[in-house]
Each structure stands twice: as structure tokens, then as C-alpha cells.
Design brief:
Shape: elongated
Strand order of the largest sheet: 5-6-4-3-7-8
Order of helices and strands: HHHEEHEHEEEHEHE
Radius of gyration: 24 Å
Structural class: alpha/beta
């Protein structure tokens, strides 16, 4: 059943987790979902390109497609002597929607868990004292951190800063991203480094700013 058609490139809309993961390994359900969504978006996609999008070999993708076909989730239609076209059946669309709902719920629970961890760290950091807080880093981690800060009454968010010129002046949730140069003016009590991967570079940047003494710098 192996198709050889080159087909279109996978749509970015099917990139459920567009990065290699160390701690969250793809399950069979996730791979079935990825294959179903890829075929829904690009019915003539080759098994080689499906495999590349899923991080699997064409041989493994062929087994997934054979199983989906045997379960009545997809139809396999010859296009010419060597190419195949895959169409999701009604049952296939139904399963794809169900799996996507379950996947989204699991991601939401992971987000909520991360926010609760950050809330605990913030409460321990502030130890009940009122504090003006600046967040250094305007990425995905910052969004979770900002949501956690809203649950800590004694924390007053006074600035979100980033060294990346492309991020300056752009909104992050309901806040605007500013240059680190404003930190002296806003006079935070605490600067929180909102990054795991870039924290050493950010700490070096903060040190180079020669900020007034007494400002606490904390990492996640």
C-alpha cells in the first residue's frame, strides 16, 4: 500500500507539537491524530512526507495507514499507476475531532500544572511581602508566568522587558514589551528571568545594566 507520490508539503496547521521532545514522548493516539490531520489537509501526501512530519519512517507510516484503512477511517484511491490518494471517511473525521479534543485538554492540563508550579515559586520568592516585579523575557514562559503573577496579590507587575529588538513595542497578553533600559526607571524590587534556556545570557545582560543595588534577581 506504500504510496510514492511526492505530493504537497505538510501544512503547518497539523504541527501539533512542532519541536523535538525529551520528556513527552508521542503516543500511538498522537501519531494516529497526526496522520489523520495530515491526510485531511493533504490527501495526496506521500508516506515519506507524512513520516517526515511525524518523525517516523515510511515503513511505520505504511503500517499506520494500513490500520486506519482496515478500521474504515480512511479510503485509499488509486490516482494512476503508482500514486495514491487518501480520503478520511466520516468515521475518520469523527475520530480525528475526538483525538484533537483529548489532545487539547491534555495540553491545557499541562499548562495549568506549570502555572501552579510558578505560583508556588512566586509565593516562596516574595514570602508575603509586597513587591514591584519586572519580568525579563517575552516568550511562551513569560505568558505562563504573567498568569501566575495574577494569582499572587502582593506582586505588582511593572514591566516586561526583552533584549530582542523584534519583540520591543509588541504586546504580550495585556502588556507591552519594553527594552531592558527602562528597568532603572520603573524601579522593580524583583526581576524574574522568564526563561529556562536563555537564563545565563539574561543574567549577564542584567549584570551589564549596572542597576541600583537592592534589586533582587530570581530565576525560575
Amino acid at each position: 500500500m506504500g504510496a510514492k507520490r511526492s505530493g504537497a508539503s505538510p501544512s503547518t496547521s497539523v504541527q501539533l507539537l512542532p519541536f523535538r521532545q525529551r520528556f513527552f514522548r508521542p503516543s500511538t493516539d498522537l501519531r494516529r491524530l497526526m496522520v489523520l490531520r495530515l491526510l485531511s489537509d493533504s490527501p495526496s501526501l506521500s508516506q515519506a512526507k507524512i513520516g517526515k512530519a511525524c518523525g517516523l519512517t515510511p515503513a511505520i507510516i505504511n503500517r499506520y495507514i494500513e490500520t486506519l484503512h482496515s478500521e474504515g477511517l480512511i479510503r485509499v484511491e488509486p490516482v494512476n499507476g503508482r500514486d495514491l490518494r487518501y480520503e478520511l471517511t466520516g468515521k475518520g473525521h469523527e475520530l480525528s475531532g475526538f483525538l484533537l479534543d483529548e489532545y487539547s485538554a491534555e495540553v491545557s492540563r499541562t499548562y495549568a500544572f506549570m502555572r501552579s508550579i510558578l505560583e508556588e515559586r512566586l509565593r516562596a520568592l516574595l514570602d508575603g511581602a509586597d513587591a514591584r516585579v519586572a519580568v525579563f523575557g517575552a516568550g511562551a514562559t513569560s505568558e505562563i508566568l504573567i498568569m501566575a503573577l495574577t494569582q499572587v496579590p502582593q506582586a505588582q507587575l511593572v514591566a516586561i522587558v526583552d533584549s530582542d529588538p523584534k519583540k520591543l513595542g509588541k504586546p504580550l497578553l495585556t502588556y507591552m514589551v519594553s527594552s531592558p533600559a527602562i528597568l532603572s526607571a520603573v524601579q522593580p524590587d524583583v526581576i524574574i528571568v522568564a526563561s529556562w534556556g536563555m537564563k545565563h545570557q539574561i543574567l549577564e545582560t542584567i549584570e551589564s545594566l549596572a542597576l541600583p543595588s537592592g534589586i533582587k534577581v530570581a530565576t525560575l
